[in-house]
Amino acid sequence: MPHQTPNQRPSKLCPICGRLFIWRKKWERCWDQVVYCSDRCRSQSGRRPNTPPNESPSPPKSLRSPLY
Ligand SMILES: [Zn+2]
Question: Region Disordered: what ranges (predicted)?
Answer without folding.
Answer: 41-68
